[in-house]
Design the sequence.
């Protein structure tokens, strides 16, 4: 079965799905986020759920064997915090922190929340074993066709992911983390392609995904002088479950033309 990574002893090696769109010598941010989530979730105590994960992508992760390290920073009765990092050539290439929270009853009263208008494709549109993503631009229909979505309309994507590591089922938290980095795609894919590269990713979750499908809808993009903030809603067939935010830098000289 296709996967993002395979094991080589205690190290992990990128497969084609994990390689960056920007250059074949590097691992893509989506795969980096997934690996860090895989390590962080080993520190999630029973009765806790992952509520926030922040990833800093400050050095390229090379398309070479990867070591992932992690540790618990604090374990409390309601909040647990853990850190993780990717190490290559004795250098930390990317790092992440996660907050795990206990669940419990909701307080009394009502609060404002926006009306959820989250599009979903028909049942069976993607395979449960991993499939190419579906995209939707504005009010257009869902399609796998990248060229049909290279425009300035609001983007929504729909995904089914294969295993992160060969021989392991992908966990709900890993699915969410991989998709969190894809916020850069739905928020910064315009009429001439993708011209921003994200330097971080923050994923917030009120619950874990249900099922094998996940959607991501662009909510806002704020840009100025080559720096852009993109925010998106992460959701499944039962409704919204979290928010993703990326901070991105202009990378116009290496802009990716997905229509090609």
Sequence:
């Amino acid at each position: 079965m296709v996967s993002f990574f395979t094991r080589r002893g205690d190290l992990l090696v990128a497969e084609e799905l994990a390689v960056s769109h920007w250059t074949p010598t590097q691992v893509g941010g989506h795969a980096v986020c997934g690996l860090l989530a895989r390590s962080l979730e080993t520190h999630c105590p029973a009765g806790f759920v992952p509520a926030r994960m922040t990833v800093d992508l400050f050095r390229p992760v090379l398309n070479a064997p990867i070591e992932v390290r992690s540790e618990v920073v604090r374990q409390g009765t309601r909040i647990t915090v853990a850190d993780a990092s990717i190490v290559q050539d004795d250098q930390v290439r990317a790092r992440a922190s996660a907050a795990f929270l206990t669940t419990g009853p909701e307080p009394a009263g009502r609060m404002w929340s926006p009306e959820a208008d989250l599009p979903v494709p028909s049942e069976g549109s993607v395979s449960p074993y991993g499939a190419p993503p579906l995209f939707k631009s504005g009010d257009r229909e869902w399609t796998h066709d990248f060229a049909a979505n290279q425009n300035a309309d609001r983007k929504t994507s729909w995904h089914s992911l294969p295993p992160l590591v060969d021989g392991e089922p992908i966990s709900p938290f890993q699915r969410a983390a991989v998709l969190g980095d894809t916020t850069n795609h739905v928020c910064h894919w315009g009429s001439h392609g993708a011209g921003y590269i994200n330097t971080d990713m923050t994923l917030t979750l009120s619950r874990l995904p249900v099922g094998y499908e996940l959607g991501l809808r662009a909510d806002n993009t704020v840009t100025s002088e080559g720096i852009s903030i993109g925010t998106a809603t992460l959701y499944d067939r039962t409704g919204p479950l979290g928010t993703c935010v990326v901070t991105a830098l202009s990378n116009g000289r290496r802009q990716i033309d997905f229509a090609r």
Observations:
- The chain is about 10% helix and 40% strand.
- The helical segments are 29-40, 172-181, 183-188.
- The first strand starts at residue 5 and ends at 8.
